């Protein structure tokens, strides 16, 4: 099997009826970039910049951040890299950062994390913005913000980046050719304000790990709950399907970067509701590409629409059967 997946490395992720899917990998460390060549992925759809902070004994200074980002961009060549600004705080507490603020939360996943922290301790975010802008000099910078819950948070993040951009421009520093802004959709409330935020965005990326944790009110780190709820529940599928439809209306590309997209059947369901961009763990690229190449997306979409409107509380069984019947 592994050999069969390796043979797919240079084949495109195109369905039987010619639908092209962008397959990207999730990464976080310098060495993860090697996965691009190993898997033949189209780029890095989620670079978790907090990894550098988490493995470091002291706060990584701007120069060190910038070096990492540039190394990653150099290694990726002309393949896009989507850098997510730090998602620290909550359970990803950093010993060197305001410990007293951080260790008293009862619900860290819903706590002072990601942009909630970064916009308040904005020295951190400014340094990261400059590191990213300078590292991407001469190229397109793709940046995205985690845990955005309200439109004003996105506005503040973008304004912060634009200020840093202006600051660098005034000093005649070399700048990115373009900056593409995106946000994670992982807080359910944001789905109700898509009409506000989509005009401000170049792309949207659905983080199904946090999103499902919040939709089901089920801690993603609690093993007692790990098997209880299903990504293929109609609740999730309907929720995602509405987001995809709204993004299409606004002509903003939307992808999924949570672990859900790395499971073959889940990835198939996502294709069936219109997702055309997945960022997944490198080991999943082969199996997911094999699935894409064997499926007829038009037939799959029709079947998913039927399930969506029927009285099916969970897509798993019917989809698995459909896949068997259709040689996927
Ligand atoms: C997510 O929440 O789905 C996601 C991709 O981000 P993380 O797993 O880093 O929280
Ligand atoms: Mg998340």
UniProtKB/TrEMBL annotation:
Location in the cell reads: Cytoplasm
Q: Which residues form the signal peptide?
A: none
Q: Describe the family membership recorded for this protein in Swiss-Prot or TrEMBL.
A: Belongs to the PEP-utilizing enzyme family.
- Report the protein name in the record: phosphoenolpyruvate--protein phosphotransferase
Organism field: Sphingobium nicotianae
Upper taxonomic classification of the species? Bacteria, Pseudomonadati, Pseudomonadota, Alphaproteobacteria, Sphingomonadales
Supply the gene name. ptsP
């Amino acid at each position: 099997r592994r050999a069969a997946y390796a043979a797919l490395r240079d084949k495109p992720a195109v369905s039987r009826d010619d639908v092209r899917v962008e397959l990207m990998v999730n990464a976080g460390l310098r060495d993860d970039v090697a996965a691009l060549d190993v898997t033949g992925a189209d780029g890095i759809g989620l670079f978790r910049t907090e990894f550098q902070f988490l493995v470091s004994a002291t706060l990584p200074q701007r120069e060190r951040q910038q070096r990492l980002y540039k190394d990653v961009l150099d290694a990726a060549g002309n393949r896009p890299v989507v850098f997510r600004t730090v998602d620290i705080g909550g359970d990803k507490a950093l010993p060197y950062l305001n410990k007293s603020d951080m260790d008293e939360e009862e619900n860290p996943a819903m706590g002072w994390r990601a942009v909630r922290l970064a916009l308040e301790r904005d020295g951190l975010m400014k340094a990261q913005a400059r590191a990213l802008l300078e590292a991407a000099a001469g190229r397109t910078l793709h940046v995205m913000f985690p845990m955005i819950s309200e439109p004003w948070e996105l506005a503040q993040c973008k304004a912060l980046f634009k200020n840093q951009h202006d600051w660098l421009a005034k000093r005649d520093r070399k700048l990115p050719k373009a900056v593409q802004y995106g946000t994670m959709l992982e807080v359910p409330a944001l789905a109700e304000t898509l009409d506000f935020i989509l005009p401000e965005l170049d792309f949207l990326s659905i983080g199904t790990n946090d999103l499902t944790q919040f939709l089901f009110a089920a801690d993603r780190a609690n093993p007692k709950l790990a098997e209880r709820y299903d990504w293929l529940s109609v609740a999730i599928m309907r929720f995602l399907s509405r987001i995809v439809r709204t993004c299409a209306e606004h002509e903003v590309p939307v992808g999924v970067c949570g672990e859900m997209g790395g499971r073959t059947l889940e990835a198939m369901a996502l294709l069936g509701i219109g997702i055309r961009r997945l960022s997944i763990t490198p080991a999943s690229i082969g199996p997911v590409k094999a699935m894409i190449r064997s499926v007829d997306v038009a037939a799959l979409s029709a079947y998913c629409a039927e399930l969506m409107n029927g009285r099916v509380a969970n897509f798993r069984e019917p989809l698995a059967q459909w896949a068997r019947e259709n040689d996927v």
